Amino acid sequence: MSWHRRKAFVVVAAMAAVGVWLGLASVSALASGPPTLKGSFGSFTQATGMAVDEANGNVFVVESHAATPAVDVFGEEGGAPAGGSPSTIPGSFQFVGEPGGVAVDNSASSAAGSIYVTNNGDSVVNRLKLSGGTYKEEPVVLTGFGEPIGDATDAEGDVYVADFVHAKVREYSPAQTEIASFSIPEPEGVAVDSKGDIFVQEFGSHKLVEVKRTSDTAATGGPVEEIATGVTAVAVDRATNTLFEDLGTKVLEDSLATGSPVEVSNFGEGTLTASAGLAVNEKTGDIYAGNTTSVDIYGSGAAASKFTLTVAKSGEGTVESLPAGIACGATCSASLKEGAVTLTEEPGAGYEFAGWIGCKQLTAKTCEIDLTAAAEVTAVFLKAAKNGTNGENVEITAFAGNQHGCPEGGFEAKVGAAGPPTYVCNGANGAKGETGGPGAKGAPGTNGANGANGAQGPAGPAGPAGKVELVTCKKVGKKQKCTTQLVSGTVKFKTAGLSARATLSRHGALYAAGIARSTRSGVSLRLQALRKLAPGRYTLTLTSGSGQHETTRSEAFTLG
Fold first, then answer.
1. Cα–Cα distance between 198 and 226 in angstroms, integer?
2. For labelling alongside 76, which of 94, 102, 278, 340 has CA 20 to 30 A away?
3. Domains delineated in the chain
4. Is residue 496's pLDDT more than 80?
5. Is the pLDDT of residue 187 over 80?
6. How does pLDDT run across 88-116, given as a tens digit for each residue?
7. Alpha-carbon span 334 to 327, nearest angstrom
8. Cβ neighbours of residue 337 under 8 Å, at least 6 residues apart?
9. Which of helix, strand or coil describes residue 60?
């Protein structure tokens, strides 16, 4: 620990007597003890730099001393990366020189999601972005360095590069414009806090120095102040305003709330053996400490519960999870943290995605499951239909026996309409295919039988008076002429003589039926219409009496 750090403690102790200790006590109260080891992952020749993509939790580790230098990509706790990322960079991109440091733009800037890799063999900083399942180089390439080693980004998306040969830390905007530079002897590691102060770890002296600024866009800073020695890597958690310093065999955790670093705790002692970089996931609070050939994960408090999630597939396709762990394909079962897990599908060649079983659909390609116990999700892929091509006219004829060399009971196909026919035999039946996945939702079933009639409701109010059709017939000359009229209310008839049954017909079809009574002037009819009566010629039939005394007479008349 440097003299400056000890001096900070002396000042705080002196201030306690005048009532300022409460400010520091409130900061310390936020700490729940040193972070605890949650796990380890990776197997490296020598890791030299790390960064976290907070959008999906992926961890980038620079493997600069391997036979083929690369940047390895892992999920949040190791394993397969999320978001469709490949497990390594290059992918389609190839490092000409040797990568040294890596940083991720986790801001909301125009370059959000960009990966900055210092390429000290070429004296450039490559900017890459995930596209189509591989990392591709962006148009912006930072150049003009003596030897770029470490790099970092700030809350505005600016990138800071430790230029070792030129003894500077240089700040660039996402558009490649150089904003500022700060002179530091042999800069190696760099980090920026939420206020814009820059923390730089020097290579030869292993000092950690601070450049204080009024903001992260200020082109100048105050005097460079040494705050610690023996530091091999540095990182800042801007979400909690915490500074982490790797001392090789342990990590110091300092609060920046009071303006100067004040130690809160240390962790990793007895576990870390050599420094290989530091990185923080500001969303989860997890700290990644490089341990030369592996990466250790530290987190605050007890580790979250984990449950096994298994993905089953019907048909051909892949499924990946966020948080990472499932990459099915190869890994279809993983132990994941309790809580929401998002699954993303991708159909295989010649297949279409049909749906999820055991998972809530979010979008056309994703679903979500709340993991509170061991669970299984099935992704259903079905073979995609294809349109056939138009072929020649083919005449298919069934036959019995061996004709044209075809097997017994086969078919012959006579191909072509002109010229000698060409006969083609059908092949033997193929092997039974595999059982398909669940079918689509069936059509709605038929309606069920009507239920029993309910109890009769109360009588409604009386409707309007009905209308009756009144037929009046008169004898004109030798013919009967009848007219019809719709009347409402009560109709009174004057009748005399005997009544008879009456029917009105036309062309053998019955149009009306009722009774007829003889009067002095003729016959009075009272008929009920059975069909619509239209003007025209009709036959009136009167039947009276019964048995042997029954008499019938008919008469034609015109209805006007």
1. 12
2. 94
3. 3-299 (2.120.10.30), 306-383 (2.60.40), 467-559 (2.60.40)
4. no
5. yes
6. 987 667 777 788 899 999 998 888 999 99
7. 9
8. 304, 305, 306, 323, 371
9. strand
Provide the b/e sequence for 513-552 (b: ≥16 CB within 10 Å): eebbbbeeeebbbbbeeeeebeeeebebbbebeeeeeeee
Strand 242-246 vs strand 233-237: parallel, antiparallel, or unpaired? antiparallel
Length of the chain in terms of residues written? 560
Using DSSP bridges, classify how beta strands 411-415 and 394-398 pair: parallel, antiparallel or unpaired. Answer: antiparallel
- Convert the pLDDT of each residue in 428-465 to its tens digit: 566 777 887 787 888 888 888 888 888 888 888 876 66
User: Where does residue 393 rank: exposed (0-12), middle (13-18), buried (19+ CB within 10 A)?
Assistant: exposed
Token reading at 4: 């400056």
From 538, 543, 415, select the one nearest 480 (Cα to Cα): 538
271-295 average pLDDT score: 86
Q: In the prediction, which pLDDT does 430 show? A: 64
Alpha helix (H) residue ranges in 279-381: none
50 and 102 in contact (C-beta within 8 Å)? yes
116 contacts 126 by C-beta, under 8 angstroms: yes
Rounded to two decimals, the pTM is 0.53
Q: What is the pLDDT of residue 293?
A: 78
Environment class of residue 81 by beta-carbon count within 10 Å: exposed (0-12), middle (13-18) or buried (19+)?
buried
Higher pLDDT, 24 or 302: 302
| Segment 429-438, tens digit of pLDDT | 667 778 877 8
User: CA distances (Å), 163 to each of 178, 188, 296, 370, 541, in order?
Assistant: 13, 8, 28, 46, 123
Rounded to whole angstroms, the Cα distance separating 169 from 225 reads 15
Quick one: three-class SS letters along 507-522?
CCEEEEEEEEEECCCC
Distance, CA of 35 to CA of 235 (rounded, Å) = 15
Whose structure tokens read 């053998």?
508
